[in-house]
Amino acid sequence: MALIVQKYGGTSLAHADNFKHVARRVAALRDQGHDVVVVVSARGDTTDELLGLALEITPEPDERELDLLLSTGEMVSCALLAMALKALSKEAVSLTGLQAGILTDKAHSKARITGVDPGRIQRELKRGQIVIVAGFQGVTTDMDVTTLGRGGSDTTAVALAARLKAGRCEIYTDVEGVYTADPRIVPEARRLQDIGYEEMLELATYGAKVLHPRAAELGLLYDIPILVASTFVEGPGTLVCKGVTMEAENKVRGIAHDLDVAKITMRGVPDRPGIAAAIFEPLAQANISVDTIVQNASLENVTDLTFTVAKGDLTKAMKVVDKRAKQVGFKQVLADGTLGKVSIVGTGMQHTPGYASKMFRALSDAGVNIHLITTSEVRITCIVDGAKVPLAVRALHEAFELAKPQ
Amino acid sequence: MALIVQKYGGTSLAHADNFKHVARRVAALRDQGHDVVVVVSARGDTTDELLGLALEITPEPDERELDLLLSTGEMVSCALLAMALKALSKEAVSLTGLQAGILTDKAHSKARITGVDPGRIQRELKRGQIVIVAGFQGVTTDMDVTTLGRGGSDTTAVALAARLKAGRCEIYTDVEGVYTADPRIVPEARRLQDIGYEEMLELATYGAKVLHPRAAELGLLYDIPILVASTFVEGPGTLVCKGVTMEAENKVRGIAHDLDVAKITMRGVPDRPGIAAAIFEPLAQANISVDTIVQNASLENVTDLTFTVAKGDLTKAMKVVDKRAKQVGFKQVLADGTLGKVSIVGTGMQHTPGYASKMFRALSDAGVNIHLITTSEVRITCIVDGAKVPLAVRALHEAFELAKPQ
Fold this sequence. Notes:
Order of helices and strands of chain A: EHEHHEEEHEEEHEEHHEEEHEEHEHEEH
Oligomer: homodimer
Strand order of the largest sheet of chain A: 3-6-2-1-9-11-12-10
Shape of chain A: globular
CATH topology of the largest domain in chain A: Carbamate kinase
Structural class of chain A: alpha/beta
Number of domains of chain A: 2
Radius of gyration of chain A: 23 Å
Number of strands of chain A: 18
Helix content of chain A: 25-40%
Distance between the termini of chain A: 32 Å
């Protein structure tokens, strides 16, 4: 009998009935003889409601205080789930991030887990307790409450699974697993039985909202198999793991997309050392996350430089770049806030010819113009017109025959 | 410049505007150069809402889990108030009960404070911070969150004032102070400028919901002057302290009342040693709080025994007593669930003749029949028909000339 870490997200814990449902699931797992640690998110819209309270007080809430405020959402969830389990006559105990020994740095609102002190959880497990842990939160060495930012509860679950040497980590959510593409765009998209960490990382980063990239990274680092499955529909889910099945090697596993892409192009940039730093340092200082960066081959000592940002950051990024334009001397700065991304994701594509050309051909046949291309070990991404993204996803899903069982 | 501990109750912190109002008050105090620690309750109806969530899950929520759940209400308040102060450019820091070093025993839902570790608060004060503490909560030596039960936030405030050797403790609420009687019953009731701890204790126990008796007890024990005043209306409030003004000695200070009184009378009880224990032990085991107990003089080795309980406990108490009646052999058990109490409260009455007789005369003249009489050092209480309580309070307020400035 192994130790299993489960995580239930906010949509799985919206109402009292959800808590009772989750409690029955957890109790059934315990009845099989497993040790069980359950990580919970805040109920439904709680985090947004708490944030709303803060914004009623001040438009820029202090981050330390906001962390304490938001952390209460997960505390409420873990107390309620422990109650629901005890109402089923199961031994259960709730632990806050602090009590569970989730130690973090001091970066409020986006803290990184620096370690897990497993003493309390291990004592409770030894006493036969089901342990319910408030996700998304930790504590600094000064005993200040922090939150982990986006994907925080997923990260808590995988970190605990790693530290406690769990046999498996199970992430329960409102989807049935990882699909070959977003089923809302491609109705014939197929659930994947398993997927590699790096592939999952690319799928998650590029728009699949199933498992947060930070959690997938941790899984990769500590080699924790992560099952992603539905709280509501019984099913096998998708296992994120190292050992992908042999036949899946060198295959496109899925199509990812992202509609939140804006592009800034600087034309006629003097091609001399330090230019890139001069542009991207002030962007970083303005807390703007730059995604894809493409620099064209230099011609007569001037070059074109293009990068993408989230649409919400476009105005701020343009201000920073316009200011630099005068200092550095670009010819022209262009912005386009109507873009999207499509990616084919699969292990080993970079070392196998034919994938890229097949992708470009499929997009071309579908009448989709490509603005930018970037690649990684496990991904080829094209930036295209936002309006063409659904068309592009369907074309690629068909071209790579993803609806067929692999 | 002294250290001042302030406490704001839930009605003072219902909406965002309330938080801003309280923040301005606290900031003004800080601007006078004082060190300030603020204890906060949960916003408005938050505690009831959280309890409602628990009851949706199970009719009998586990007390440890309920404590964690309910404690989040005060955490939300302290984070929001700290944000509001920072929005006014004041240095402020929120602390949970755990962070503030509020140590308690393990009696979940009604924990007692066993000590205060003031290290963190003192460090924050030294750094120039206004310290906002979540009231009503503490932590056990196992780092489990506890709540202090009724009057918990008042108790937190006075305990902190005692441990930090504060110059004063100020309890802000929705009333303007302690009155000679409930102004809703006696329109001409007068606010008292000051009142002794013992007197306050009797007034609070016997129905004045201004300062919780536990807090008044702590104030008495550590000699902490406690100002009770309104959050909303500027005014001097009432100072609860040891040194009541000389002229107030041996005077009736106020009329207290309580409508939640039920009476059980056992007639023909064999008058032998151990009888009282045989009756009251099983009541205590059933967790029924017995208030007044009166035993009549024995006649022919049988006696009458009467006691009062809260109305909500009457049915349960009758079951316990009926069961004993057969074993012990009473003649008759009578119950009356329609009673109330009126008390005159003042220091030194017991040693001064005339107060009791004046009280009985006033009630008699008003046509109020007395069921039971009990006395303490600072109080004379009559149990009367519940319907007659308002009449009785008004008659006593007039007989002791409480509307006149003392």
